[in-house]
Amino acid sequence: MRLAAALLFGPDAATVSVARREIVAALSEGDEMRVTRLDGGAVRKDPAALDEAVRSRGFFPGRRVVLIEGARDELADTIAAVLADATPEDAFVVAEAGALAPRSGLRKLFEASRVAAACGLYPDPPDPAELSAALQRAGLSAGVTREAETALASAAQELDRAQMAQLVETIALYGASASAPLPAEAVLALLPAASDAEIDRLIDAVAGGRAEDVVALYDRVAAGGGGPVQILIAAGRMFRQILTLASAPDGLDAALARLRPPVFGPRRTALARQVANWPASRAEAALRLLQDTDRTLRSPGARPDRALVERCLIRIAMMGARR
Q: Which domain does 205 fall in, by range?
């Protein structure tokens, strides 16, 4: 079945825009005379404009493209009507949208259609080289230490591009007069306040086998008020999920597709990589260690709770580092 339309969506407008330019250029073979651009708001007010643009025949050979910029859920019915009787002579419809939830009417339309495709686009976080260059451009001539680079790269996994840009500006302003690279401690102190995302970064390091990062990330969580029990609960949740995915009889892809809430983009890629690193037997061992530590924390008597949890996480991370 020949495709008649494609939906491009995602949280980062620049990433979606780049993909849209490439797809439109490929379909039109770079001929702007074969491209019709429509504004999503205008189509909502005049639905017939889309049908007319798709059905009209051009003067130039080759397939035409109709680009809908700023597509929203309100256009789902209008686009569905156009796709219902699409012919090979009609223009190919490219709908460009922002972030769309799984329950989005527009997204459901494209995902369920036999003649259309939906493509979610999620930007990769900046790598250490990009972060270093961004800090230099922001005015931090002294740079940061390697440990600080690691902390920044970890933060980039969770922060969006706008938040990361703000963090870079903050670090550059803080270290504008520094004559030596900023240490990890200074960079960690400038990260957003501890939150669920901070705990997620710690647990991701554990699941990723990065034992050397555990103490610094735990410091950040503790500074924001995260306690040992809260961390153990989050770790248990992560490793139960890994065990479920690793034990799925129909394979990892099918298991990932069943997750609720759904997981997309870099987070899905990271989770798949972690599952590949944790066979079911090893994930079970990690869960047993977490449960033993939890029972110790809940037992009566004085004990160094943080040291117990920190040691538990490091041991699990070392298990994850084995190949």
A: 197-321
